[in-house]
Design a protein that fits this description.
With 260 residues, this protein is mainly α. 64% of the residues lie in helices and 0% in strands. It has helices at 11-30, 34-47, 52-64, 68-81, 86-98, 102-115, 120-137, 148-156, 177-189, 192-204, 208-211, 218-239. Mean pLDDT is 74; it is low at 139-144, 149-154, 160-167 and 241-260.
Length: 260
Protein backbone atom coordinates (compact mmCIF):
# COMPACT_ATOMS: atom_id res chain seq x y z
CA UNK A 1 0.00 0.00 0.00
CA UNK A 2 1.24 3.50 -0.79
CA UNK A 3 2.36 5.54 2.21
CA UNK A 4 0.15 8.41 3.18
CA UNK A 5 1.61 11.87 2.74
CA UNK A 6 1.99 13.85 5.96
CA UNK A 7 -0.68 16.43 6.50
CA UNK A 8 0.39 19.93 5.43
CA UNK A 9 -1.24 22.80 7.28
CA UNK A 10 -2.86 25.44 5.13
CA UNK A 11 -1.88 29.11 5.44
CA UNK A 12 -5.13 29.79 7.29
CA UNK A 13 -4.40 27.05 9.81
CA UNK A 14 -0.85 28.33 10.36
CA UNK A 15 -2.13 31.85 10.96
CA UNK A 16 -4.75 30.57 13.38
CA UNK A 17 -2.11 28.63 15.32
CA UNK A 18 0.17 31.68 15.42
CA UNK A 19 -2.67 33.80 16.76
CA UNK A 20 -3.49 31.14 19.35
CA UNK A 21 0.12 31.02 20.60
CA UNK A 22 0.32 34.84 20.71
CA UNK A 23 -2.98 35.17 22.57
CA UNK A 24 -1.84 32.63 25.15
CA UNK A 25 1.47 34.43 25.57
CA UNK A 26 -0.32 37.76 25.89
CA UNK A 27 -2.25 36.38 28.85
CA UNK A 28 1.01 35.18 30.40
CA UNK A 29 2.44 38.69 29.90
CA UNK A 30 -0.50 40.19 31.78
CA UNK A 31 0.22 37.78 34.63
CA UNK A 32 3.93 38.71 34.45
CA UNK A 33 4.83 35.14 33.57
CA UNK A 34 7.36 36.25 30.99
CA UNK A 35 9.19 32.92 30.65
CA UNK A 36 5.94 31.16 29.75
CA UNK A 37 5.05 33.97 27.36
CA UNK A 38 8.41 33.59 25.64
CA UNK A 39 7.73 29.90 24.97
CA UNK A 40 4.48 30.75 23.17
CA UNK A 41 6.10 33.47 21.04
CA UNK A 42 8.90 31.06 20.11
CA UNK A 43 6.33 28.49 18.99
CA UNK A 44 4.51 31.11 16.92
CA UNK A 45 7.73 32.18 15.20
CA UNK A 46 8.63 28.57 14.46
CA UNK A 47 5.54 28.53 12.25
CA UNK A 48 6.41 31.86 10.62
CA UNK A 49 9.73 33.51 11.46
CA UNK A 50 8.67 36.85 9.95
CA UNK A 51 5.28 37.29 11.62
CA UNK A 52 5.41 40.95 12.68
CA UNK A 53 2.99 40.68 15.59
CA UNK A 54 4.89 37.76 17.11
CA UNK A 55 8.25 39.48 16.56
CA UNK A 56 7.17 42.74 18.17
CA UNK A 57 5.50 40.94 21.06
CA UNK A 58 8.56 38.77 21.68
CA UNK A 59 10.73 41.89 21.53
CA UNK A 60 8.70 43.39 24.36
CA UNK A 61 8.92 40.11 26.27
CA UNK A 62 12.72 40.06 25.88
CA UNK A 63 12.95 43.59 27.24
CA UNK A 64 10.95 42.63 30.31
CA UNK A 65 13.32 39.68 30.78
CA UNK A 66 16.30 42.06 30.58
CA UNK A 67 17.57 40.78 27.21
CA UNK A 68 17.75 44.04 25.26
CA UNK A 69 20.02 42.71 22.48
CA UNK A 70 17.51 40.01 21.54
CA UNK A 71 14.70 42.56 21.78
CA UNK A 72 16.55 44.80 19.32
CA UNK A 73 17.08 41.92 16.89
CA UNK A 74 13.35 41.08 16.85
CA UNK A 75 12.40 44.75 16.37
CA UNK A 76 14.82 45.11 13.45
CA UNK A 77 13.52 41.90 11.85
CA UNK A 78 9.98 43.27 12.10
CA UNK A 79 11.07 46.57 10.54
CA UNK A 80 12.66 44.69 7.66
CA UNK A 81 9.19 43.35 6.93
CA UNK A 82 7.44 46.70 7.45
CA UNK A 83 9.67 49.75 7.93
CA UNK A 84 6.71 51.88 9.04
CA UNK A 85 5.30 49.51 11.65
CA UNK A 86 4.76 51.83 14.62
CA UNK A 87 5.06 49.09 17.26
CA UNK A 88 8.35 47.89 15.79
CA UNK A 89 9.68 51.46 15.74
CA UNK A 90 8.80 51.85 19.41
CA UNK A 91 10.38 48.53 20.35
CA UNK A 92 13.60 49.40 18.54
CA UNK A 93 13.74 52.78 20.29
CA UNK A 94 13.18 51.09 23.66
CA UNK A 95 15.77 48.38 23.01
CA UNK A 96 18.38 50.95 21.95
CA UNK A 97 17.62 52.95 25.09
CA UNK A 98 18.20 49.96 27.38
CA UNK A 99 21.40 49.14 25.49
CA UNK A 100 22.67 52.64 26.28
CA UNK A 101 22.63 53.77 22.64
CA UNK A 102 20.74 56.93 23.55
CA UNK A 103 21.44 59.00 20.43
CA UNK A 104 20.06 56.32 18.10
CA UNK A 105 17.17 55.69 20.49
CA UNK A 106 16.31 59.40 20.37
CA UNK A 107 16.13 59.32 16.58
CA UNK A 108 13.63 56.45 16.61
CA UNK A 109 11.50 58.02 19.34
CA UNK A 110 11.40 61.19 17.21
CA UNK A 111 10.49 59.13 14.17
CA UNK A 112 7.60 57.51 16.03
CA UNK A 113 6.43 60.82 17.48
CA UNK A 114 6.40 62.29 13.99
CA UNK A 115 4.36 59.44 12.57
CA UNK A 116 1.94 59.20 15.51
CA UNK A 117 2.01 62.51 17.44
CA UNK A 118 -1.06 61.53 19.46
CA UNK A 119 0.84 58.74 21.24
CA UNK A 120 2.34 59.97 24.52
CA UNK A 121 4.72 57.01 24.68
CA UNK A 122 6.93 58.52 21.99
CA UNK A 123 6.93 61.97 23.57
CA UNK A 124 7.91 60.42 26.91
CA UNK A 125 10.57 58.42 25.11
CA UNK A 126 12.06 61.60 23.65
CA UNK A 127 12.15 63.20 27.09
CA UNK A 128 13.84 60.28 28.84
CA UNK A 129 16.49 59.82 26.13
CA UNK A 130 17.28 63.54 26.15
CA UNK A 131 17.75 63.37 29.91
CA UNK A 132 19.97 60.31 29.53
CA UNK A 133 22.14 62.09 26.94
CA UNK A 134 22.40 65.14 29.16
CA UNK A 135 23.53 62.96 32.07
CA UNK A 136 26.18 61.18 30.00
CA UNK A 137 27.69 63.90 27.82
CA UNK A 138 26.49 67.03 29.64
CA UNK A 139 24.37 68.60 26.90
CA UNK A 140 21.87 71.02 28.45
CA UNK A 141 18.93 72.59 26.71
CA UNK A 142 19.54 75.87 28.49
CA UNK A 143 23.32 76.01 28.09
CA UNK A 144 23.01 79.37 26.37
CA UNK A 145 21.49 80.93 29.47
CA UNK A 146 23.82 82.81 31.85
CA UNK A 147 24.37 81.27 35.25
CA UNK A 148 22.66 82.77 38.31
CA UNK A 149 25.92 84.02 39.75
CA UNK A 150 26.92 85.77 36.53
CA UNK A 151 23.49 87.29 36.12
CA UNK A 152 23.56 88.56 39.70
CA UNK A 153 27.01 90.06 39.22
CA UNK A 154 25.87 91.77 36.05
CA UNK A 155 22.88 93.31 37.87
CA UNK A 156 25.10 94.55 40.70
CA UNK A 157 27.31 96.43 38.23
CA UNK A 158 24.44 98.17 36.47
CA UNK A 159 25.22 101.90 36.19
CA UNK A 160 22.99 104.17 38.22
CA UNK A 161 22.17 106.11 35.09
CA UNK A 162 20.29 103.05 33.84
CA UNK A 163 18.25 102.73 37.05
CA UNK A 164 14.63 103.78 37.05
CA UNK A 165 14.25 106.47 39.74
CA UNK A 166 10.70 105.43 40.68
CA UNK A 167 11.35 101.70 41.11
CA UNK A 168 15.11 101.67 41.80
CA UNK A 169 15.37 98.68 39.44
CA UNK A 170 17.57 98.35 36.36
CA UNK A 171 15.89 99.19 33.07
CA UNK A 172 15.47 96.13 30.87
CA UNK A 173 17.82 96.03 27.93
CA UNK A 174 16.36 95.67 24.47
CA UNK A 175 16.25 92.04 23.28
CA UNK A 176 19.12 91.07 21.01
CA UNK A 177 18.67 89.87 17.45
CA UNK A 178 19.31 86.29 18.59
CA UNK A 179 16.63 86.52 21.29
CA UNK A 180 14.12 87.94 18.82
CA UNK A 181 14.83 85.13 16.37
CA UNK A 182 14.35 82.58 19.14
CA UNK A 183 11.01 84.10 20.13
CA UNK A 184 9.81 84.05 16.53
CA UNK A 185 10.91 80.42 16.17
CA UNK A 186 8.86 79.47 19.23
CA UNK A 187 5.82 81.20 17.79
CA UNK A 188 6.19 79.52 14.42
CA UNK A 189 7.25 76.01 15.45
CA UNK A 190 5.45 75.66 18.77
CA UNK A 191 6.64 72.63 20.78
CA UNK A 192 8.97 71.59 17.95
CA UNK A 193 11.17 74.58 18.74
CA UNK A 194 12.38 72.78 21.88
CA UNK A 195 13.43 69.78 19.78
CA UNK A 196 15.18 72.04 17.29
CA UNK A 197 17.20 73.81 19.99
CA UNK A 198 18.08 70.50 21.59
CA UNK A 199 19.36 68.98 18.34
CA UNK A 200 21.34 72.14 17.54
CA UNK A 201 23.05 71.95 20.93
CA UNK A 202 23.66 68.23 20.49
CA UNK A 203 25.41 68.84 17.15
CA UNK A 204 27.81 71.28 18.84
CA UNK A 205 28.99 68.74 21.40
CA UNK A 206 32.38 67.13 20.58
CA UNK A 207 31.40 63.79 22.14
CA UNK A 208 28.87 63.28 19.37
CA UNK A 209 31.77 62.15 17.16
CA UNK A 210 32.14 59.12 19.40
CA UNK A 211 28.46 58.28 18.93
CA UNK A 212 28.89 58.38 15.14
CA UNK A 213 31.12 55.32 15.28
CA UNK A 214 27.95 53.23 15.68
CA UNK A 215 26.06 51.64 12.80
CA UNK A 216 24.20 54.84 11.95
CA UNK A 217 25.52 58.37 11.56
CA UNK A 218 23.70 60.30 14.28
CA UNK A 219 25.07 63.68 13.14
CA UNK A 220 23.59 63.18 9.68
CA UNK A 221 20.15 62.38 11.08
CA UNK A 222 20.28 65.32 13.50
CA UNK A 223 21.34 67.73 10.73
CA UNK A 224 18.52 66.51 8.50
CA UNK A 225 16.05 67.09 11.32
CA UNK A 226 17.35 70.63 11.95
CA UNK A 227 17.25 71.43 8.22
CA UNK A 228 13.69 70.14 8.02
CA UNK A 229 12.58 72.26 10.99
CA UNK A 230 14.30 75.33 9.55
CA UNK A 231 12.43 74.84 6.28
CA UNK A 232 9.14 74.43 8.14
CA UNK A 233 9.88 77.56 10.16
CA UNK A 234 10.52 79.58 7.01
CA UNK A 235 7.38 78.15 5.40
CA UNK A 236 5.20 79.27 8.31
CA UNK A 237 6.97 82.63 8.43
CA UNK A 238 5.84 83.25 4.87
CA UNK A 239 2.34 81.91 5.49
CA UNK A 240 1.63 83.65 8.81
CA UNK A 241 4.50 85.93 9.82
CA UNK A 242 2.69 87.38 12.83
CA UNK A 243 0.91 84.34 14.22
CA UNK A 244 2.09 81.36 16.19
CA UNK A 245 1.66 77.87 14.87
CA UNK A 246 -1.47 76.56 16.65
CA UNK A 247 -0.62 72.88 16.56
CA UNK A 248 2.33 70.84 15.36
CA UNK A 249 -0.10 68.44 13.67
CA UNK A 250 -0.68 71.17 11.07
CA UNK A 251 2.88 70.85 9.79
CA UNK A 252 2.97 69.77 6.13
CA UNK A 253 4.33 66.25 5.73
CA UNK A 254 6.32 66.88 2.56
CA UNK A 255 10.10 67.03 2.35
CA UNK A 256 10.52 65.08 5.58
CA UNK A 257 13.94 63.69 6.57
CA UNK A 258 14.32 60.02 5.73
CA UNK A 259 14.54 58.98 9.40
CA UNK A 260 11.02 60.33 10.08
Amino acid sequence: MPRKKPKVDTIEEIEQNIKLFCDQSKNHMKSREYEKALIGYNQALELNSTDINALVSRSKCYLLLGEASKALLDAETALNEDKNNIRAIYQKAEALYYLGQFEQSLMYFHRGARARPELNSFRLGVQKTQEAIENTIGVKNNNNKPSTSKAKKSNDNTPKSQMNSSSARPIRAKPTKLELERRNARKLLGELCVDKEYLENLLKHPDLIRADTNTENISTYAKEAVDFLNKRQEFWRQQRPCNALPNQKNLPMDAMPRWF
